[in-house]
Amino acid sequence: MMASRGYDMTPTMYSPDGRIYQVEYAMETVKRGAIAIGLQAKDGAVIAVEEKSRDLQVEDITQKIFQVDDHIGIAAAGYIPDARILIDNARFFSQSNKLTYDESVEVGAVAKHLADQAHQFTQYSGVRPFGVALIVAGVDRKGAKIFVTDPSGTYVPYTAVAIGGNSDEVTDFLEKNYKKEMLMDDVMSLAISAINLKSDEKGVKHIRMSRIRTDTKLFEKVSQEELAKHAQARDQHAQAKDQHAQAKDQHAQAKDQHAQAKDQHAQAKDQHAQAKDQHEPENPDGSSK
């Protein structure tokens, strides 16, 4: 930390080793936020976040998932007040595009615009980088799309991505379990499993989720009741998978036992033949009968 002294006072100054510490600090803020996930399905896109409500807090209002347009939603991780500023900017950009070109804005255009806004706050003194990363998900004429923007002004397309706390472990989980041909119901169940992977809580009470289907191109919130059904179906599938694996192990064990019995039978047969040879009488000339 002492090596950054003097070079972390402004985002406009590079350190001797080519680093912009203010941007790195903003990235660290994102890592301290709750997990957020974006998944592209064959028939749409899903965004989900972990959001733990207090006892007296209204639970059906999420603070980390936002609707930008009819066909675009955003999930945030990091400093959420910064996210609200960027979301308002994205909404204005989307509506301006609609008025100017008389067509819905593309998901990638919104992601690029937000990345440009984030990048501007790394170029001037007297400002600080936005301490938030965003998952921009939606359906346009090119199909379901997911992009991630970060405080540096970078935006990258993904088919499955996690940002926020424990995102590295969750990303590893997604790399092993996500498949591009998965349908909406499958990715919703996968998102629940991914969030619960490193969460202190289990179930769906702490999960907020939204989706955009390719057929309707409409942003919609997923209810807690539907999330509970997906979680139950996921548990049943996992149980059936375990039972199948157990049956497979039992079959392998039975196969090994059968092979062992076969070997014992062959050994007994050899011993019987050997005993027979030993008890067979010999001719006077020394040869066997």
From TrEMBL:
Cellular component, GO annotation: cytoplasm; proteasome core complex, alpha-subunit complex
Proteasome alpha-type subunits domain mapped to chain residues: 7-29
UniProt entry tagged with the keyword Zinc-finger: no
Subcellular location: Cytoplasm
InterPro entries with a match to the protein in the record: Ntn_hydrolases_N, Proteasome_alpha, Proteasome_alpha-type, Proteasome_asu_N, Proteasome_sua/b
GO MF, any single term: endopeptidase activity
Single GO BP term: proteasomal protein catabolic process
Catalytic activity, EC: 3.4.25.1
Chief localisation class: cytoplasm
Keywords attached to this entry: Cytoplasm, Hydrolase, Proteasome
Region (Disordered): 226-289
NCBIfam families: PRK03996.1
Family: Belongs to the peptidase T1A family.
Protein's UniProt name: Proteasome endopeptidase complex subunit (PsmA, prcA)
Name of the gene: prcA
